[in-house]
Structures are given as structure tokens and as C-alpha cells.
């Protein structure tokens, strides 16, 4: 274990899951309207832009758990976790429009709505043992992770960061440096294998070994930065208690713990608000994003005041924590509570996970609530990215949207808006049952 | 000059302009309603948050160039450049609300509105000699500058970045490392004095000296990163042609040039869309933000495809370039054109600058269009931050909002929404004329 860990970051060599389910640029095969738009897009957007699916989807309307293309065809969206309370939620549209007609000052002016939201957000952590008491707003998950690492460094008086080998924490700043799935590693980043085997002690041992290596490199361990559900390492949600020993190992080495809740947060796992809390652990810093504003750019670092106080540079983010995006975020909290979406995620998620286990076998399925991962194997039991891609394309033809994740891109990733219904899930399971014999095993 | 430049970044020791006009925490002196809200805010927001003014402003409504406090008192806003087309613009509210009820997919799906906007945005550069042809959306100016530096590094095959001594380019990532006004410097950043003397050759010489020093440090010069109006160095807009020799010096050293248009862009200077174009120069990368979406979080890196292509890592920003924020940005372009706001900024700005010159003397005033800076001196001609603060507070009492900038915080910063009227400016000049005798000289 320690041996594997000490190979560290540069050896990760992940297949970037981003590129697994991408449109490959075969323009000729597309329908004319789509082809023209793809061409125009390629002529003006930077070359790093990617489209999903061999036939990219031109989205003209969206509602609840459905996307509609230009021709009005409806797709069941089992992939987009940003619109957690449902695409184009009317209450979000209303709250945002109202804020836009009232006022949208930045945070150097007073705004009661922003204070109010921060109070409400902190309440979601109140059940925890040593709850965070302060919020710093950002616009993106990337910004939140960048800032959290800076704060952890200041508080720890160290530099090194431990992540998992296929982690994704953002597209820029220190967040991309700490994302082995995207960037070539810097020496202060050390990547350990995600605990896909579900062994808390072995995971903790590799964190300790990583911290020792960071000490040896002269950086020390400033932070253990973990997605609380390891969503880009293939999704690991169990056993409950998985994170405790690793958190302790990082702290024993003088580091802080940052819980990246950008994917698992806001009730996604159907068991309280936050992925780390499910494991009964208390991080030092927590980063939020994606579903926070149902698609409006809002993110946050949440922590305790004494930890924030360690970071001295002024932090001012022009657009963050302003009434317009906060109006969306406030609506998200209200709707999750009023509509019981966490309980809904738990019960509909149980149906989803149970159904997947029935189809693929219990060993192939991981997840909790409405976050599910299914390892796709070839008949010899090896990871099968081609079959995974085939399955995604077949579902796309049947108007169901999922995608892939994991080191080799051979893990189905399923994370619908929380408002997906039992009937939607049953339909998905039936279509899977129908398509599977043609594709795998 | 070279001597001063070679002192480099760590010696900058700027008074952070962010803290010049801050509420100092004297809660007791505030009116009860404001006091309670400030208390609640301090209890939940991170300690890095700052409020402006000795008596913070509780904004309940905003329209055009006016802010209204909780008691309905109206303030003339001569400071906020984010709502360029005016606070709470009804067309922005309408466009955003419509997009929110239709669809807001991320950039791995097709959306004609996003392609359309990118086309329109690129048209604003069409008058330039070698216009950029591709857009990469971000959510904040920080993200845009972070990415632009990464791209420049990849394209140049070098690491070092040259900035000015009191520059501000962002709150995180490589942008904050390259912001001497906030962060302690890293060795790959070298800061040169801003050309406050308006001498293009001397400025170019200090860029050459900085590049040589970065070569000597082993980093080389990847980029010269300049705010096209040097807005946090005290505002330098003239003479026309100021930037050309410095751009050439950076290129002679193997570096690219990044024009930070977050402050001067979108017509602010009353002379075309972009601050760099006013000087007849062509940057390699251009970063946009602040007024781009009139307050919605949207920013961009604009460049040529071959430069973008040098940067290999995948770039995906969950919230960037989505229909909702693009709807706001599209409205901004449309309104600037339909309402002739660039010409308006030029004519109203000329009145503002002329009036300020009459009051403070031509030597104390810099700026172009609706971006004005006034150096405030004591009777002996020394920079006077106390008088500057006094003037800002006096204007605040007279319900006019401005703030301070510059190394010592002794420069008034005036940059109203572009829709400010001649009558507003005349009122401001009259109030200034009235208050000045009590405060300075
Ligand atoms: C776990 C995790 N952290 C951080 C991020 C970055 O978020 P953003 O795209 O808003 O910068 C992502 C985005 O996919 C993510 O999945
Ligand atoms: C010149 C300049 N560049 C970049 C930024 C960073 O923009 P943001 O706050 O959106 O990250 C600012 C913000 O004040 C700025 O003034």
C-alpha cells in the first residue's frame, strides 16, 4: 500500500473521464441543423471545449429531470447534478428575477438576503460535532478549493496536499494542481489510491505514508483534500466510517482536512446534507459548489472562524455572495427542505441502486442516494471502456442520458436531478434490461 | 529605472487599496438597524469580508446610477463599474429570467445562444489588426487571468510573469500570485513600476530589465500581464501609444502579452470597446470580466486558436458559458450598442474629467471616458490619504459614492455605471466644489 502510494502523483496517468464520452468531431455524420451549430461553435469557442456524445445534444428546453432537444424530443436526464432541484425550476427563476430587479451589490455593501442565506447554510451543519461557523462565498468549485488549500496552508504552516489518484477538484489555481485526473503533478501534491476496497485502515495507512513522503520532500502535509464520495475515482460511499482513520492520519501529520462536497453535497447521498457527515467525521474546511445555486455560479468555503483567520491576504471576489446568486441558493435550500428531497433521494436512490445490483451484480455497483456507479466488465471480468461507451450511446438513442467516470472510463456514472421519480428510475432499469444483452457479456 | 524595477515584487509593500475605505468595526456608532445587520453578518461571514465606508451602506434597491438604502435614501453611485449598463437593468432581468425558465445546460451540450454570443463578442475585436478568434468562458476575472497565464506559459515555454507594482489581477490561483497589491510575491513574478510618468520608453526599459531578471532567475518571461488602464496602480490612460513599446519588449524576451480588460473593457474608456485597442496594440490574450454580465458571474479569455491550442489540459468550468449568464452578457452588448453608451461615456466622461481638472488642477487628474482618478495632496504637495478618506466620507454624507485607489490610498477613484447623466456629473462637481474648501488645502 505504502509502496503504491509513494509512486505519487506523476504516475497516475489517468484516462481523463472528461474525454471518455466526447463527441469526436465527426461532423459529417450529424443532422444538418446540429452540424451547422457544431461548426459555428468550433469556429468561435476555444479548442479545449468538448461536447458529450457521438451525437451532441442541442438543448432547447429543460424541466425537472428532462431535457428537450431542438425537435422537442424528450430525454430523461440521469446525469446532471447541478440542477439538483430540477432543471429550470420556476422558483429559482422567480427569485433570481426579483433580485435582479431589486439590487445586486457586491459584498462591501450590506445585504440582508446574503446574511440570511449564510445563516441558513450554516444551520445545515448544526448536527455535526464541531460545526463550522463562517462562510466565504466563491463563484466556482475551483475557486472554493483553491482558497481552501490556501487557508489550510496558512493554518498548518505547511505546503503539501494529499489527494486521491484520479481526483478532480477544479480547472484552475491550486485546485487543478491538486487534480491528478487533469494536470501534471507538482511536487507538493501527493496522490494516494482511493479506497475502492472499502478498507479504512489501509486508506489511512496510505495517507500516513503520503504525509511522510511530503515531509521528506520538505513540504509537510498542509491538507488532505478529499471528495467525500470519491466521485471521480469511481465513486466510493461505503462502508460508513471510511473517512475517519484517514482524517486522523492527516491530522497526526499536522495537516488539516478539506471535504470537497461539490459533488456529494446538498442531500445528493440521501442521508443528511453532506457526504462527510454520513461518515461521522468533521472536516476543517468544506467546499461547496455545483447544485448550490441550481446552475447559477455560486460556491463556498465553510469553516471555523479561527481557521479562516489564519489566512491573511484580503479576499474579494467581485461576483461571489451577491443577492442574485444567493437568491438561487436560498431557493435551493428552501425547496430541498419543503419538498423533502433528501428523503426522496434516499428512497428513489435505494430503488435505483437495488435495480442496478439486480442487473449487474452487487459487486459492480457502488453509491448512495442518487449517486450511483456501475463498473462495466468484459466477459473475462476486465474493465471494459468500449462496452461502457456502447451502453452510454445505446441509452442516448433510447433518450436516457448517463455518462462515464473512473480511471479507465469503464464506470457508468448516474446522478440525476434529485426530483427524478420512481417511474423514471423504473423506466431506466427496463431500458437497461432491454439493451444489456446486446452490449455486454 | 532598471534599478527600481530590479527591486522586484517583494519590495512593493503597497497599502492595499481594498482596506483604504473600509468600515473599521466601530459597531456602537451605527444606527440600530444597520448595527444589527453588521453584527449578524460578522457572525456568519468569514473574517476576510470588508464593508466600505465608516457607515456601511445597506442597499435595498438600485436602478441606473443610483443605490437606495433601507430608508429609501438615494445615493448617486459613481463607483460601481460592474453594472455598466445600470443597476437592475430590466432587460437583463428579463433575459436572465427567460433563460432560467428555458434551459441552462453546461458547455458539453449545444446551445445556440452561447455560440451566438461568442460570435458577437468577437465582433467587438474585429477592428483590431490581428483580432482574436476564440473565446473560453470563465466565471470570474480571477479565473480568466489564472487561465490566461497558464496558456501563456504553455505557448511561451516559460514561466515568469511581469506585472506592475500595485496591480490587482484576482483573488486566487496564479492571478493572486501575480497581484502585488494583495499577495506576497513568488519568485516567478516580477513587478515593475506603472508608467505614471507616461513615458513609454522608460516603461519598456523596465519591462526589458524585468525579463532579463526573470531569465537570470531561470524562469524566463512567459507573459507581460497588464491592466490596460493600470486601474489599481492609480489609473494611467495616457498618452495614447503608451503600451506599444512595453508589449514589444515583452515579445523580444519571448513572452506573450495578456491585456487585463476586466476594468477598462466594455466601453468604459469611451473610445472603442477595449482599453488596449485605444493604444493601437494587439495583445496575445485578453481577459474580460466585471461589466461583462452586468453583475452575473461571467468572464472570459479571448485569444487566437493557435495560442489556445498550446494549452493541453482539459478545461471545464461547470458554470461558465451557460445560457443564463450568457443571456445577461448578450443584453450588455446589445444595450451598449443600442443606447450608444460608448459615445455617452466619452462625452459625459469629458465633462467629468474637465470638471475635475478645473477643481484639482490638470496635473492631479488622470483617466479617460468614465474612469477618472484624482490625486489628493496636502498643502505641501504630498499624497494625503487622510484627506482622501475625509473627502470620500463627506461625499458619502452628501449621498455620492466614490472610493480610493493607488499605492497609498490617496487617489480618488470614480467609475460610475455608464448610464450616469450629465446632470449627475454636474451635481457631483458642485458638491465637490462645496466640500473641498473644508477638507483640503
Ligand atoms: C468534486 C469536484 N470539485 C470541484 C469541482 C470544480 O467545480 P467548478 O467546475 O465549479 O469549478 C468539480 C467539478 O466538476 C468537482 O466535481
Ligand atoms: C483588473 C482586474 N482584474 C481582475 C480582477 C478579478 O476579478 P474577479 O473579482 O471577478 O475575480 C479584478 C477585480 O477587481 C480587477 O480589477
Q: Which features does this protein show?
A:
homodimer; about 450 residues; alpha/beta; Aspartate Aminotransferase, domain 1; Aspartate Aminotransferase, domain 2; 2 domains; 7-stranded mixed beta sheet; 4-stranded mixed beta sheet; globular; disordered N terminus; binds pyridoxal-5'-phosphate
Distance between the termini of chain A: 32 Å
Provide the CATH superfamily of the largest domain in chain A. Answer: Type I PLP-dependent aspartate aminotransferase-like (Major domain)
Largest sheet of chain A: 7 strands, mixed
Q: Low-confidence segments of chain A, ≥5 residues, pLDDT <50?
A: 1-15
| Outline of chain A | globular
Mean pLDDT of chain A: 93
Number of domains of chain A: 2
CATH class of the largest domain in chain A: Alpha Beta
CATH topology label of the largest domain in chain A:
Aspartate Aminotransferase, domain 2
Number of helices of chain A: 14
Largest interface: pair, residues per side: A-B, 100 and 100 residues
User: What proportion strand of chain A?
Assistant: 5-15%
Oligomer: homodimer
In terms of structural class, how would the helical and strand content of chain A be classed? Answer: alpha/beta
Looking across the biggest beta sheet of chain A, what order are the strands in? 4-10-9-8-7-5-6
Keywords (chains A, B): Aminotransferase, Pyridoxal phosphate, Transferase
GO molecular function (chains A, B): pyridoxal phosphate binding; transaminase activity
Pfam families (chains A, B): Aminotran_3 (PF00202)
Family (chains A, B): Belongs to the class-III pyridoxal-phosphate-dependent aminotransferase family.
Amino acid at each position: 500500500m505504502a509502496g503504491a502510494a509513494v509512486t505519487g502523483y506523476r504516475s497516475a496517468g489517468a484516462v481523463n473521464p472528461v474525454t471518455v464520452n466526447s463527441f469526436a468531431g465527426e461532423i459529417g455524420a450529424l443532422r444538418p441543423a446540429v452540424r451547422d451549430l457544431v461548426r459555428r461553435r468550433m469556429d468561435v469557442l476555444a479548442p479545449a471545449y468538448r461536447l458529450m456524445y457521438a451525437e451532441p445534444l442541442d438543448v432547447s428546453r429543460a424541466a425537472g429531470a428532462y431535457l428537450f432537444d431542438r425537435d422537442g424530443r424528450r430525454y430523461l436526464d440521469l446525469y446532471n447534478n447541478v440542477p439538483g432541484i430540477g432543471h429550470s425550476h420556476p422558483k429559482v427563476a422567480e427569485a433570481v428575477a426579483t433580485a435582479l430587479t431589486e439590487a445586486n451589490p457586491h459584498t462591501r455593501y450590506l445585504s440582508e438576503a446574503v446574511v440570511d442565506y449564510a445563516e441558513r447554510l450554516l444551520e445545515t451543519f448544526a448536527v455535526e460535532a464541531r460545526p463550522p461557523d463562517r462562510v466565504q462565498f466563491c463563484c466556482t468549485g475551483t475557486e472554493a478549493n483553491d482558497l481552501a488549500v490556501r487557508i489550510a496552508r496558512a493554518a498548518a504552516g505547511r505546503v503539501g496536499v494529499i489527494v486521491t489518484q484520479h481526483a478532480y477538484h477544479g480547472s484552475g489555481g491550486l485546485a487543478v494542481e491538486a487534480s491528478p485526473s487533469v494536470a501534471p503533478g507538482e511536487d507538493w501534491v501527493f496522490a494516494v489510491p482511493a479506497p475502492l476496497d472499502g478498507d479504512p485502515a489501509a486508506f489511512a495507512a496510505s495517507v500516513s505514508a503520503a504525509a511522510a513522503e511530503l515531509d521528506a520532500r520538505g513540504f509537510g502535509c498542509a491538507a488532505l483534500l478529499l471528495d467525500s464520495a470519491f466521485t471521480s475515482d469511481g465513486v466510493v460511499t461505503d462502508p460508513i466510517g471510511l473517512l475517519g482513520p484517514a482524517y486522523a492520519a492527516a491530522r497526526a501529520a499536522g495537516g488539516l482536512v478539506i471535504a470537497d462536497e461539490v459533488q456529494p453535497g446538498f442531500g445528493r447521498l440521501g442521508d443528511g446534507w453532506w457526504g462527510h457527515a454520513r461518515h461521522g467525521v468533521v472536516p476543517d474546511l468544506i467546499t461547496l459548489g455545483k447544485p448550490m445555486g441550481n446552475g447559477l455560479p455560486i460556491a463556498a468555503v465553510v469553516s471555523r472562524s479561527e481557521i479562516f483567520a489564519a489566512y491573511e491576504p484580503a479576499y474579494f471576489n467581485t461576483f461571489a455572495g451577491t443577492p442574485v446568486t444567493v437568491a438561487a441558493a436560498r431557493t435551493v435550500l428552501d425547496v430541498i427542505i419543503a419538498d423533502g428531497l433528501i428523503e426522496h433521494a434516499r428512497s428513489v436512490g435505494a430503488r435505483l441502486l437495488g435495480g442496478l445490483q439486480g442487473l449487474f451484480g452487487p459487486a459492480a455497483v457502488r453509491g448512495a442516494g442518487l449517486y450511483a456507479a456501475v463498473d462495466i466488465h468484459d466477459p473475462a471480468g476486465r474493465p471494459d471502456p468500449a462496452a461502457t461507451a456502447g451502453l452510454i450511446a445505446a441509452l442516448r438513442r433510447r433518450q436516457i442520458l448517463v455518462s462515464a467516470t473512473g480511471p479507465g472510463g469503464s464506470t457508468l456514472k448516474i446522478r440525476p436531478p434529485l426530483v427524478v421519480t420512481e417511474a423514471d428510475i423504473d423506466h431506466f432499469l427496463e431500458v437497461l434490461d432491454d439493451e444489456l444483452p446486446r452490449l455486454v457479456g
